[in-house]
Design brief:
The chain is of the alpha/beta class. Helices cover about 55% and strands about 15% of the residues. The longest helix has about 55 residues. The relative contact order is 0.08. Bound molecules: 3'-deoxy-guanosine-5'-triphosphate and magnesium ion (3 copies).
Length: about 325
């Protein structure tokens, strides 16, 4: 729907096959400040309405060739002209004719002979209604834009939130879970295993002689090595409920819910072997020719006498022993 700026004259198209009617109406409307176009038949009315987009149409009903009802129906069926208000002007006083006029889309109905004051006030009414409709349509479009914008912002926020979650729980160097996430999960699994009296196991892994690896190859190569070791451990630990996390520096932890210690021990050996088989050259290792892991394993059936810090300390103690006994090994 088009709205004309207020300062521009509103245009009225007058359609009547009788010249004297046309003259009377157009004189009055011009005096009231409207811009007036006059046409004498329906066919011309359709053409001018489309081309001029008048603000209102005064439409005679009884005309040769095409009557006002037909003209009105065609105008209302056309996307380009359907919103132009139409006021019928007819000699017929019959209610049925008036009903027909409204049924085919007319907005108002004036009977002939007409009073100029009545025509004037009915035109003003229809123009005011149309202005309100235009305003509403524009406000609606604004609201729809606003809603769309809010939805975009919301989905952007959702994405950012997910990214934040990842940033908060994933270690940026090794792309596995970070210490923070491990602490959260350890707490949760500890409670769960206490509740269900189920077993829970832990494996602590520490890279052997990693300081000298850094010293020999440089810090960047050290970082690459940590990434590869983390990925290797993750490949061995396959159950979705298990968690591999970077515990700190060159230490990794594997949390194994509902896992008896014997199975954890087997898994730890697989991890040791997998990393050994990476065959990452380490000329300064005192135990072998390559990067290796020492692993400490601890397992409990929860509700035992330990708390979770003591449980971690047991795994740490086992890891210490693995180091003491020569590294590149698993100790329970
Ligand atoms: P051990 O066999 O007894 O574990 O000897 P180690 O040299 O591995 O142990 P130590 O604790 O003396 O050294 C660990 C080294 O790991 C020291 C530190 O510079 C290195 N390190 C810790 N975090 C990172 C890291 O993010 N990147 C690199 N490149 N090195 C790291
Ligand atoms: Mg007529
Ligand atoms: Mg260490
Ligand atoms: Mg180490």
């Amino acid at each position: 729907m088009k709205a004309k700026p207020k300062l521009i004259q509103e245009e009225i198209l007058v359609v009547d096959d009788q010249r004297d009617n046309l003259l009377l109406l157009s004189t009055m409307l011009t005096m009231e400040g409207y811009q007036v176009r006059e046409v004498v038949n329906g066919k011309l009315a359709l053409q001018v309405a489309k081309a001029d987009q008048p603000d209102l149409i005064l439409l005679d009903i009884n005309m040769p060739e095409m009557n006002g009802y037909e003209v009105c129906q065609l105008l209302k069926a056309d996307q380009e002209t359907k919103d132009i208000p139409i006021i019928f002007i007819s000699a017929s006083h019959y209610a049925l004719d008036k009903v027909k006029a409204f049924n085919c889309g007319g907005n108002d109905y004036i009977t002939k002979p007409f009073q100029l004051e009545e025509v004037s006030v009915r035109i003003k009414n229809q123009l005011a209604i149309r202005r309100l409709q235009v305003e509403l349509t524009e406000k609606n479009a604004c609201l729809e834009n606003e809603i769309r914008h809010r939805q975009e912002v919301e989905s952007e926020l959702l994405k950012l939130n997910q990214q934040l979650k990842v940033l908060a729980t994933v270690d940026s160097l090794t792309k596995i879970a970070n210490r923070y996430y491990f602490d959260e999960m350890f707490e949760r699994e500890w409670r769960q295993s206490n509740r269900e009296k189920s077993s829970l196991s832990l494996i602590l892994c520490d890279v052997d002689f990693f300081k000298s690896y850094n010293d020999y190859f440089g810090h960047q190569a050290g970082d690459d090595c940590l990434y590869q070791v983390a990925q290797a451990i993750s490949e061995v630990v396959k159950r979705p409920m298990d968690l591999v996390a970077r515990y700190g520096g060159e230490e990794f932890v594997v949390l194994l819910p509902q896992t008896p210690v014997a199975s954890a021990l087997e898994l730890a050996e697989k991890i040791r072997y997998k990393v050994y088989k990476l065959n990452l050259h380490h000329p300064l290792s005192a135990t072998s020719d390559r990067v290796s892991l020492s692993l400490g394993v601890a397992g409990i059936v929860a509700s035992s006498q330990y708390n979770k810090e003591q449980f971690l300390a047991i795994a740490d103690q086992a890891l210490y022993q693995a180091k003491q006994l020569g590294r590149n090994r698993v100790i329970l």
